[in-house]
Amino acid sequence: xxxxxxxxxxxxxxxxxxxxxxxxxxxxxxxxxxxxxxxxxxxxxxxxxxxxxxxxxxxxxxxxxxxxxxxxxxxxxxxxxxxxxxxxxxxxxxxxxxxxxxxxxxxxxxxxxxxxxxxxxxxxxxxxxxxxxxxxxxxxxxxxxxxxxxxxxxxxxxxxxxxxxxxxxxxxxxxxxxxxxxxxxxxxxxxxxxxxxxxxxxxxxxxxxxxxxxxxxxxxxxxxxxxxxx
Amino acid sequence: xxxxxxxxxxxxxxxxxxxxxxxxxxxxxxxxxxxxxxxxxxxxxxxxxxxxxxxxxxxxxxxxxxxxxxxxxxxxxxxxxxxxxxxxxxxxxxxxxxxxxxxxxxxxxxxxxxxxxxxxxxxxxxxxxxxxxxxxxxxxxxxxxxxxxxxxxxxxxxxxxxxxxxxxxxxxxxxxxxxxxxxxxxxxxxxxxxxxxxxxxxxxxxxxxxxxxxxxxxxxxxxxxxxxxx
Lengths: 230, 230
Fold this sequence. Notes:
The structure is a homodimer. Chain A is α+β, with helices and mostly antiparallel strands. Chain A has helices at residues 19-30, 69-79, 90-114, 116-121, 125-139, 143-147, 150-160, 162-167, 181-196, 207-221; strands at residues 3-8, 35-40, 58-61, 64-67. Chain A has a 4-stranded mixed β-sheet with strand order 2-1-3-4, with helices on one face. Chains A and B meet through helix 3 and helix 8 of A and helix 3 and helix 8 of B.
């Protein structure tokens, strides 16, 4: 049965942008599972599957409804054990949680701020108003004030990627010789930036940029099909 | 056959302090392998097993001589597959490299600087002179100048542990329900600090401190047997 992925979009339904939804799209493709996305705007999330979650991604797989990207990856891993593994064992599952926490606490705060006005501009009127209200309350600043720190924070952001960059001298993917869910965790964050804003987040010569390019090419170029913001 | 672990010590042979040697001691204990340490001072490293490595740890296991803590852990994992796993699968091996790079680039620089004068004080005269010369060349400052930044950097160091701290809200060890080599990677760094200097690196209420305490208790309290610096 085709899996449904409730996937966050703005006014353009063909440009899903959520980092967490991209993790799941890549995980579904990695497993070779047939799926269909249900384009979902911020204000639609409350109605997804009867309001099961405050956020997307949410998937429906037959009778199973699962929210949260990491929980979804674990669900897929165990529901489809004969498909290519997302974790390559129990150690991979456990360590991927560390990668997830690192990505969330290191990469997301910078990109979330740097792309804030661009993400706002992607929404239709009602969703833009919701986004501005909720984010300005969270940050205690206007969206424009938050994004204004983008250039000043760039060098420090690039430096914060050093553990990943250094790891790439040992192996081509976080997953080793090939990608695993931990790669998609970090990929999702950079894909969020790529789709939201035309901003040179990474230096072209950065090994992280090369790794990101390899991820864009995976699964028939699934993630490259959505063009970078221009 | 008993494995030999060349283990870095200062003037007191009962206080091995190297973070990388502690990773290996914990890995050997985790595997339940019999081993004997060969106390090794900085100036002895060049003579270890015919000068096979510029650093310790080095192990000899019968005819196999292996240098580098990560390489040793991989060697032990594959040479003793029937013993408790250090990685719990190929995903764990790959992701542990990310944890290792994170620990090396996030935790080691601060502790290496904060403990620098204390590590110097642990050496005998000849090794102290070597240590001062090599480290002052590396840092371009006196040992005392490097360590002087300890208090100023403490809050930022504690903040840098946030990915680990946050992960501990999901699971008790980097390895999941129980420790794996990735735990010993981070443990080794904090044990280095614990043995070198009486300095409150972590707040008592920090979940990282609780996790560190659990690691100290592992394997019959192997790592707790060396008292904290006083």
